[in-house]
């Protein structure tokens, strides 16, 4: 059932429905998530690894987002 969750991470609603259908064990999705994270945390992290962003040493004002707009403005002024 863990493999059927897909690449987007664990589907706790699917697990809760499976428990209800197979065993008549009715639980809310949030309770199933808490139980899975408590008892199967290592397995979940192995099957669904977290993608961490690589931190940069640049400051916000050093990013290229504003700088990408500046050359277009300068070209318009130069014309």
Provide an overview of this structure.
- The protein is mainly α.
- The chain has a domain at 1-51.
- Helix content is 57%, strand content 0%.
- The protein contains 4 helices and no strands.
- The protein has helices at 12-23, 29-39, 41-47, 64-78.
- Helix 1 crosses helix 2 (29-39).
- It is elongated.
Summarize this entry quickly.
The chain has helices at residues 12-23, 29-39, 41-47, 64-78.
Order of helices and strands: HHHH
Unreliable segments of 5+ consecutive residues:
none
Shape: elongated
Rg result = 23 Å
The fraction of residues in strands falls at under 5%
Number of helices: 4
Q: How many strands, what sense, and barrel or not for the largest sheet?
A: none
Mean pLDDT equals 76
